[in-house]
Design the sequence.
C-alpha cells in the first residue's frame, strides 16, 4: 500500500477515478484501522493459495465471533470431542475491540462513533449490528458512544455529519465505496472527512488493498528486492497463484487454466473460468482492460450435508478459508463452502482446529 498509494499511473491502471485518487492521496499511510480477510484455498499439493484480499467491507465477523461460540457449545455437550477442538472467534472479538480503540485514540470523552450500512441487505445490517454491540461496552469505558444506521440516515446539520440525526465524531463505513460514489451521502461524508470534522476509520486504502489488480502488481514485482524481503518474496512465489492483467497475456494464451476476475469485483461477481467464456466475451473483457487473469487452483472438493428447502441434502462443495487480520495481526478464520467460484450464496461453516 505504501508503494502504490503515491503512484498515480499505477492507481489509474487499477481503475481508480480521479476523485478517489484525490481522497486517497489525503489519507495517512499509517492509518491505524485496516481490517481485512485473506481468502485462501488448499491445493492438491497441500499449499495454501491466496485468491484475494477483502479489506473494504469484509464480512464474516458476526459468524466467526458469535455463531462459532454457539456451535462450540453444542459440540461440547455430552462426550467431549477427541482431540479437543479450539474455536477462533475470541481472537477476532478481542482484535476488533483493540483495533477500533486504537483508531479512536484521542477522541474526546462524549464522542460518538457511527457505523453506516445498507439496512436493505439483512447480511450487511446484521454485521453492522454485531459490530456495534461488540464495540459498545469497550468504547463506553473510553466515553465513546456507538450507534448504527442506514446510508439514508447519514445527513449534515450545522456543519456536522450526523447519523440518525445525531452528530458524529467518527464513522466506520460498512458500505461499498463504489456504490456510495455519486450519492449525496458520498459528498457529505468525504467533505466532512476531508475537512477534519469527522474521523473516517476506513477510507480508501482498504479498497485499494482488495483491488484484484494489486495481485497482478504483486506478481509482477515478486522478485523486486527493493520492495520485498527474501521471506516475503518466497511467500509470494509459493502462495500467490500467478496473476496478470488480461492485456499482458499473449493472444494465444491457453485460457483453460485461467480464472478471469474484474478488478473491483465483489463476492464472486464477474469471475469466470477462462475455458467457459466464448471467444467474443473474452475479447470484450480484453478490450475493457479491467480484468486480471489468475492461474486456476486445483482444489479438492468436499462432500457436505446442506440444509435446503427440500430438507438435508448431500452436495459437493469447495471450501475457502478466510484468514482475518486486524491492526496488522492475525485475528481468526472464516470458512465458507460453495461452488467452484465462491459467491454470496456460499454457506458459512465454523472453523476449529485440533490441539496437538
Sequence:
Amino acid at each position: 500500500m505504501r508503494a502504490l498509494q503515491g503512484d498515480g499511473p499505477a492507481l489509474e491502471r487499477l481503475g481508480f477515478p480521479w476523485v478517489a485518487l484525490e481522497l486517497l492521496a489525503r489519507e495517512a499511510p499509517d492509518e491505524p484501522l485496516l481490517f481485512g480477510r485473506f481468502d485462501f484455498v488448499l491445493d492438491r499439493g497441500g499449499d495454501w493459495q491466496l485468491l484475494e484480499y477483502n479489506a473494504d467491507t469484509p464480512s464474516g465477523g458476526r459468524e466467526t465471533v458469535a455463531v462459532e461460540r454457539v456451535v462450540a457449545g453444542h459440540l461440547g455437550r455430552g462426550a467431549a470431542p477427541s482431540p479437543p477442538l479450539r474455536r477462533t472467534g475470541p481472537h477476532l472479538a478481542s482484535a476488533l475491540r483493540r483495533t477500533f480503540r486504537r483508531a479512536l485514540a484521542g477522541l474526546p470523552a462524549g464522542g460518538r462513533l457511527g457505523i453506516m450500512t445498507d439496512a436493505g441487505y439483512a447480511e450487511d445490517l446484521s454485521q453492522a449490528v454485531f459490530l456495534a454491540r461488540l464495540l459498545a461496552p469497550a468504547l463506553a469505558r473510553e466515553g465513546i458512544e456507538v450507534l448504527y444506521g442506514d446510508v439514508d440516515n447519514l445527513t449534515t446539520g450545522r456543519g456536522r455529519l450526523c447519523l440518525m440525526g445525531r452528530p458524529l465524531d467518527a464513522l466506520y463505513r460498512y458500505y461499498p465505496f463504489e456504490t456510495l460514489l455519486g450519492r449525496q451521502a458520498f459528498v457529505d461524508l468525504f467533505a466532512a472527512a476531508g475537512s477534519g470534522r469527522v474521523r473516517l476509520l476506513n477510507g480508501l486504502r482498504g479498497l485499494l488493498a482488495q483491488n484484484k489488480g494489486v495481485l497482478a502488481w504483486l506478481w509482477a514485482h515478486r522478485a523486486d528486492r527493493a520492495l520485498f524481503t527474501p521471506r516475503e518474496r518466497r511467500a509470494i512465489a509459493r502462495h500467490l497463484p500467478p496473476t496478470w492483467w488480461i492485456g499482458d497475456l499473449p493472444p494465444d494464451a491457453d485460457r483453460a487454466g485461467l480464472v478471469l476476475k474484474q478488478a473491483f469485483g465483489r463476492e464472486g461477481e464477474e469471475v469466470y473460468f477462462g475455458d467457459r467464456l466464448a471467444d467474443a466475451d473474452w475479447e470484450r473483457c480484453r478490450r475493457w482492460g479491467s480484468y486480471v487473469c489468475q492461474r486456476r487452483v486445483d482444489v479438492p472438493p468436499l462432500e457436505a450435508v446442506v440444509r435446503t428447502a427440500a430438507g438435508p441434502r448431500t452436495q459437493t462443495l469447495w471450501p475457502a478459508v478466510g484468514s482475518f487480520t486486524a491492526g496488522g495481526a492475525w485475528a481468526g478464520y472464516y470458512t465458507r463452502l460453495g461452488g467452484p467460484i465462491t459467491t454470496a450464496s456460499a454457506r458459512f461453516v465454523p472453523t476449529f482446529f485440533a490441539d496437538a
User: Anything to note?
Assistant: The radius of gyration is 21 Å. The chain has a mean pLDDT of 90.
